[in-house]
């Protein structure tokens, strides 16, 4: 595990070491307008969370998770090298502006180098994110029935390790970027990323490698087309649904998926008709006839989507931590005590990360043992309950953020600073701690529960792809933030480009709060009617019946 986690920690260290402070880099170093900079940050975060679909496809279909992580890390390293050069070489950034001098925005070539660097980083991240979490969880799958799966423990500590990387990036790296220079601030994570690739390769012989089972996208398309071709076929009790364990052996090492009654129109893809001309010991034409297991794979993926979509607005709220919350901090007194040291604006996220780390440790060591006595679940509470708690706390986070913004503006007004753009308002930056801390607590519940849900409920052969769906929700949330910022800026005066004091950022926070309330209600409905995947564990039937340990937990929860 140290070899696997080191790679992902370095990726997150590099990614967040830049993205946490990216809005300052774009506005101060490249002289971008605030709304354009905020949208660039969310677009980058969205793209780097959307590319995991591509990385998961390559891993599940062709080269496996190990080599996908290796190749993607190399691409990521190239992006970091390019980004470091763009921040170091004078001709790749606009000249500094001092005093009342008019700032010259970055030209086309300078922006092209920036966007190319971000694109390479996003592509590399797309191969690392979905594969590392699934590759690590794969190491915990035990064949021996006396060694039950403990992947829920892994997900807690996987996220804890990432939190340590985030904490380091939010403190050490951000301080270096603000006080030493962006060359060193980007060069250090670039070196760390290079070392992580070497460490990851050293552990090759220790890993449990799973052979790719073929393209999951192709199988989903085959089932869809086969069901469409047989759309006029009548489903009745006399229909035999096709099953072929030999054909599905590479897809179902942990157990075959059982037939479920949901989405019965897809069952037509597994009905054997005369037109199929199926002969014994002959592989069927999968574009006309599929096995029950493959049909149930598609059903499982469809069932994942509504729950997965509930994470979109959580990501939209999260995006504000790296954009407008930082701009709030820029206007506030950042002194730590009575000394001269000032906490960097982007380092305020340490309160979110610290809250997340404390919550994870508290959850794993205290809450789970206590909850286990009441629920009977090995994991304490189900991942659906865990996600719901996180979504509710996120509502409180943006609600509180709006009231804190009201307080900040009241102090600015009382001191006659509403019309100034560079004056520091005499209010401590630590007023922002509640909104950051609440979001960190929310993330500890929602994000880990979300990852657990996708990994556990996804078909075995599609776990990288399912994990990519988690990042797709994050991507969509970031793009949603871009859309909201664009529309709000166009039709209201809430988000001015130059003077945040003249805006009404609190209304924007409360708009997101209202959307999250609607999203929470939507999630409760989806969770209420969610059907867990039916799994027949072949290797444990004789000792444990038709249900494995995890499914017994889910049955108890239902």
In short:
The chain is mainly α and 558 residues long. 64% of the residues lie in helices and 2% in strands. It folds into two domains: 458 residues, Growth Hormone, Chain: A (Up-down Bundle); 83 residues, no CATH class.
Structural summary, described in words:
This is Protein NRT1/ PTR FAMILY 3.1-like. InterPro entries: MFS_trans_sf, POT_fam, PTR2_symporter_CS. One of its GO terms (biological process) is oligopeptide transport. The structure is a single chain. The longest helix is centred in the first third of the chain and has 37 residues, at 52-88. Helices cover 64% and strands 2% of the residues. Residues 537-558 have low confidence and may be disordered. Helix 3 packs parallel to helix 5. The protein folds into 2 domains: 2-211 and 310-557, Up-down Bundle (Growth Hormone, Chain: A); 216-298, no CATH class. 50% of the residues are buried. The chain is mainly alpha-helical. The chain contains 18 helices and 4 strands. The strands form 2 sheets. It has a two-stranded antiparallel ribbon. A two-stranded parallel ribbon has the order 2-3.
Number of structurally distinct domains: 2
Query: Which structural class should the secondary elements be placed in?
Result: mainly alpha
Overall, the morphology is globular
Spans of at least 5 consecutive residues whose pLDDT stays below 50 are 537-558
* CATH second-level architecture of the largest domain: Up-down Bundle
Work out the helicity level.
55-70%
Q: Superfamily at the CATH H level of the largest domain?
A: MFS general substrate transporter like domains
Q: What is the CATH level 1 assignment of the largest domain?
A: Mainly Alpha
Q: N- to C-terminal separation?
A: 33 Å
CATH fold naming of the largest domain: Growth Hormone, Chain: A
Count up the helices. Answer: 18
| Strand arrangement in the largest pleated sheet | 1-4
Largest sheet: 2 strands, antiparallel
User: How many extended strands?
Assistant: 4
What share of the residues does DSSP label as strand, in percent?
under 5%
Order of helices and strands: HHHHHHHHEHHHEHHEHHHEHH
Q: Taking Cα atoms only, what radius of gyration do you get, to the nearest Å? A: 25 Å
What integer is the average pLDDT?
84
GO cellular component, one term: membrane
Transmembrane segments: 66-89, 109-136, 157-176, 182-207, 341-363, 383-404, 468-487, 507-530
GO biological process, one term: oligopeptide transport
InterPro entries: MFS_trans_sf (IPR036259), POT_fam (IPR000109), PTR2_symporter_CS (IPR018456)
